[in-house]
């Protein structure tokens, strides 16, 4: 038992970091701020590097790794502030043709009872999977049947491909049969496959300059997909938590780098205890979130995932705020990258799991009286 | 990344669980938590049972993973807390195991394990708390003895202790960190006066200890003369890194009990309170994961916990206080003000967690300077 990544896992993470540093460094990041259209070439490169197909079986052209490895790679994407529907691309790699290689860009939008109905990068997606309904485990929102551990040191093949059963009328280009969400037909969770121009959208100017957003106001329930929606939501929340973790870890580094360089009153500001203590609290949030996220990736169960998302959200949002504080006036400018981390962290905070629902689910679990260790 | 246990470890868990199921119902009634002499007898008795069953040395002899299993299982089963044995089992003992000579290990460790000796920690002085290296208690060499004069304070369990891990200044001329030595002092030596201090949580828990020409053999020194600061860092790394680990499981049990109490008394209908409890659930779960992380890191570093212990200690001490504040909310006004409630006593004693074993401010300094490499300064 050792929660820390193995040498192989660290090597995988390092190579993801190198790839992103090469292909999505500071200049590319700032260019994306000015024109946030998805970089299709980069998307294909990510595909070629196995980013999306990481958990597909090798027989299907995938890398054959598990959820823990996916979390490590997503942590790097979070550090680099890589934009795009990364979670959708990864989770639907075995489902939507072309998603695994990055040839086609697929979006994923939760229009369920409490879903924010927000769609990332609407103009860049070739297609969209919508999920709705609260599913069997409404209290946990993203919960549901706890799948057996995925890739938790077992030899079992990764199950991503098993997310989907054959589509009932995939590929049909029949016109939409219904418009508008209205009342879901029943409470069970569903997934629908839509062409990117089928849903009706309300414009929304995204707070995150790197992530264009639209609000889905109505959509056709076309081409139902037999996706395991609870599992999809759970894994989406976990991968989103991993992105938050990466961002939180990056903002500590940014704060520490700045505190070591900037001088006031004739000393480096990092020598001031008030600044030191801000930085120390940032590191603590990262460590606690990291332990929770990594452990949740091993168990794959819904409650640990919910808890991990809560703590990773806190780490990303509060670290970005503290990082901004450590930067002083520069921190409030558009030129510093700090605001980009904060805005993205706010966005992810709203994705896949709301804080209130999550805390309610964690509270409910206490009544069961189990202290799982 | 791996959370699985080996078959041997699982077997160890099962055997321990079976043993606990038999041993716990046979225990005598628990003493009044404020009656330390009674607690001494009770806690030592429990340690003796563990020892006789072969579980006595788990605090420092076993693999880190076995230790975790031991802590999980004893806490889950509701076994007695280490209590009076805290210092001996959780930081003096491990320090002697790591830094002592073979002779010293043979002399002091078995009585700790057999539940025969209680240890206390004589580090802090009235003017040397956070700034521990400012300590002034003097030890002057006289033949084979040190002759010690000075004062210690906030010494937990001093009244009932047999031995004290004592920090003394052996070289007053040397720079502050260089002239310190770590000694094992028998508490019945002539010249020792223990004066209990009343705490905000009840009568005595700790005491002032006055030392007036107390003679301690030089053979009782652990580590080289004047090298006590380094030995002290080992002691503190155990105190911060591992000593509170078992309590996390206990806190999770407490939290579950709190939720059920709220359900019964109607406070559960308050969504703000519910969410607070839910968040604490995530917090204590993650603290347990952090422990598992630190155990791996300590194993890789040869057994001594590193500065990562400060990360754990700081977050845990805050979470524990939040837990008991939430308990007060669950009890409602009258309950929260009732000094006879068990929760109230626990809430009061939780106030010490951000102070004892190094304050939160000191832990943040350690994290900033040792883990983040920020410049030293004010
Ligand atoms: C319940 C309990 C049990 C204890 N048991 C023992 C024991 O068995 N043996 C033993 O030796 N000691 C024991 N202690 C003492 C404990 O280790 C000290 O109280 C602790 O280290 C703090 O020192 P102090 O009390 O002198 O506080 P001070 O050092 O005077 O601190 C007062 C305040 O100033 C802050 N402060 C001090 N220095 C700095 C700094 N450099 N930067 C920022 N803030 C600073 C502190 O954080 C604190 O908020 C115990 C304490 C408690 C509460």
Q: Secondary-structure map with pairings?
A:
The complex is a heterodimer of chains A (about 375) and B (about 375).
Chain A (H helix, E strand, L loop, with lengths): L6 H17 L2 H9 L5 H9 L18 H14 L5 H6 L14 E5 L7 E3 L6 E6 L57 E6 L4 E5 L8 E6 L5 E2 L3 H33 L1 E2 L2 E2 L4 H27 L2 H26 L10 H12 L5 H13 L6
Parallel strand pairs in A: 1-3
Antiparallel strand pairs in A: 2-6, 3-4, 4-7, 5-6, 8-9
Helix pairs in contact in A: 1-4, 4-6, 4-7, 6-7, 6-8, 6-9, 7-8, 8-9, 8-10
Chain B lengths: L6 H17 L12 H17 L11 H13 L9 H14 L2 H12 L5 E4 L15 E5 L2 E12 L6 E7 L10 E7 L5 E8 L2 E16 L3 E2 L5 H14 L3 H21 L5 H30 L7 H29 L5 H9 L9 H12 L7
Parallel strand pairs in B: 1-4
Antiparallel strand pairs in B: 2-3, 3-7, 4-5, 5-8, 6-7
Helix pairs in contact in B: 1-3, 3-7, 4-5, 4-6, 6-9, 7-8, 7-9, 8-9, 9-10, 9-11
Model description:
The complex is a heterodimer of chains A (373) and B (378). Chain A has 373 residues and is of the alpha+beta class. Chain A is built from ten helices and nine strands. In chain A, the strands form three sheets. Chain A has a four-stranded mixed sheet with strand order 1-3-4-7. In chain A, helix 6 runs parallel beside helix 8 (302-327), helix 8 runs antiparallel to helix 9 and helix 8 (302-327) packs across helix 10. With 378 residues, chain B is α+β, with helices and mostly antiparallel strands. Chain B has helices spanning 7-23, 36-52, 64-76, 86-99, 102-113, 228-241, 245-265, 271-300, 308-336, 342-350, 360-371, and strands at residues 119-122, 138-142, 145-156, 163-169, 180-186, 192-199, 202-217, 221-222. In chain B, strands 1-4-5-8 form a four-stranded mixed sheet. A four-stranded antiparallel sheet of chain B has the order 2-3-7-6, with no helix packed on it. Chain B is built from eleven helices and eight strands. In chain B, 46% of the residues are buried. The chains are: A alpha+beta (373), B alpha+beta (378). Chains A and B meet through helix 6, strand 9, helix 7, helix 8 and helix 10 of A and helix 3, helix 7, helix 8, helix 9 and helix 11 of B. The structure holds flavin-adenine dinucleotide (FAD). Residues 120-124, 129-130, 154-156, 206, 352, 355-356, 358-359, 361-362 of chain B line the site of flavin-adenine dinucleotide.
């Amino acid at each position: 038992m050792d929660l820390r990544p193995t040498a192989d896992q660290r090597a995988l993470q390092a190579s993801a970091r190198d790839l992103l540093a090469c292909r999505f460094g500071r200049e590319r990041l700032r260019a994306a701020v000015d024109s946030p259209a998805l970089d299709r070439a980069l998307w294909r490169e990510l595909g070629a590097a196995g980013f999306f197909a990481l958990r597909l079986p090798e027989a299907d052209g995938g890398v054959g790794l598990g959820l823990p490895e996916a979390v490590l790679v997503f942590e790097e994407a979070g550090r680099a502030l890589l934009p795009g529907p990364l979670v959708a691309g990864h989770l639907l790699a075995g489902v939507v043709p072309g998603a695994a290689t990055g040839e086609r860009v697929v979006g994923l939008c939760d229009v369920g009872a409490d879903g924010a109905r927000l769609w990332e990068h609407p103009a860049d997606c070739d297609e969209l999977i919508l999920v709705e309904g609260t599913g069997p485990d409404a209290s946990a929102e993203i919960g549901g049947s706890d799948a057996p551990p995925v890739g938790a040191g077992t030899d079992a093949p990764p199950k991503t491909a098993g997310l989907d059963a054959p589509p009932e009328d995939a590929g049909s280009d029949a016109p939409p049969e219904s418009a508008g969400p209205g009342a879901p037909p029943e409470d069970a969770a569903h997934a629908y496959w839509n062409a990117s121009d089928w849903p009706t959208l309300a414009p929304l100017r995204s707070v995150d300059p790197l992530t264009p957003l639209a609000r889905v106001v109505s959509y056709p329930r076309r081409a139902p997909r037999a996706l395991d929606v609870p599992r999809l939501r759970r894994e989406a929340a976990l991968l989103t938590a991993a992105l938050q973790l990466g961002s939180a870890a990056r903002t500590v580094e940014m704060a520490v780098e700045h505190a070591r360089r900037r001088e006031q009153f004739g000393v480096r500001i990092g020598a001031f205890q008030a600044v030191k203590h801000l930085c120390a609290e940032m590191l603590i949030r990262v460590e606690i979130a990291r332990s929770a996220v990594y452990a949740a990736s091993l168990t794959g169960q819904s409650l640990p995932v919910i808890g991990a998302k809560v703590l990773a959200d806190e780490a990303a949002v509060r670290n970005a705020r503290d990082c901004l504080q450590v930067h002083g006036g520069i921190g409030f400018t558009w030129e510093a990258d700090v605001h980009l981390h904060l805005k993205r962290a706010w966005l992810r905070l709203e994705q896949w799991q709301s804080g209130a629902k999550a805390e309610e689910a964690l509270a409910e679990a206490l009544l069961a009286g189990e202290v799982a260790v | 990344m791996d959370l699985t246990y080996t078959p041997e470890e699982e077997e160890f868990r099962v055997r321990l669980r079976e043993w606990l199921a038999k041993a716990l119902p046979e225990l005598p009634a628990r003493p009044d938590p404020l009656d330390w002499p009674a607690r001494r007898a009770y806690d030592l008795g429990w340690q003796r049972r563990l020892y006789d069953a072969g579980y006595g040395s788990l605090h420092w002899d076993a693999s880190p993973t076995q230790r975790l299993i031991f802590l999980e299982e004893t806490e889950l089963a509701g076994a007695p807390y280490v209590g009076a044995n805290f210092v001996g089992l959780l930081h003096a003992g491990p320090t002697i195991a790591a830094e002592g000579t073979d002779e010293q290990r043979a002399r002091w460790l078995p009585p700790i394990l057999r539940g025969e000796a209680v240890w206390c920690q004589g580090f802090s002085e009235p003017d040397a708390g956070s700034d521990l290296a400012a300590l002034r208690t003097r030890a002057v060499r006289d033949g084979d003895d040190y002759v010690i004069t000075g004062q210690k304070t906030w010494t937990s369990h001093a009244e009932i202790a047999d031995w004290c891990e004592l920090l003394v200044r052996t070289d007053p001329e040397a720079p502050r960190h260089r002239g310190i030595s770590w000694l094992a002092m028998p508490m019945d030596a002539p010249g020792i006066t223990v004066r209990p201090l009343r705490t905000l949580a009840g009568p005595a828990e700790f005491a002032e200890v006055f030392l007036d020409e107390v003679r301690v053999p030089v053979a009782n020194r652990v580590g080289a003369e004047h090298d006590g600061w380094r030995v002290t860092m080992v002691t503190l790394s155990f105190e911060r890194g591992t000593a509170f680990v078992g309590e996390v499981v206990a806190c999770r049990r407490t939290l579950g009990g709190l939720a059920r109490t709220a359900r019964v008394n109607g406070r559960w209908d308050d969504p703000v309170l519910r969410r607070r409890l839910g968040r604490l659930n995530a917090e204590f779960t993650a603290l347990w994961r952090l422990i598992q992380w630190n155990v791996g890191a300590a194993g890789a570093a040869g057994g001594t916990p590193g500065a990562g212990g400060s990360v754990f200690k700081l977050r845990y001490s805050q979470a524990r206080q939040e837990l008991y504040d939430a308990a007060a909310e669950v009890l409602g006004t009258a309950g929260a003000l009732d000094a006879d409630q068990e929760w109230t006593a626990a809430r009061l004693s939780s106030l010490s967690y951000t102070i004892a074993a190094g304050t939160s401010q000191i832990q943040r300094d350690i994290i900033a300077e040792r883990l983040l490499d920020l410049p030293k300064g004010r």
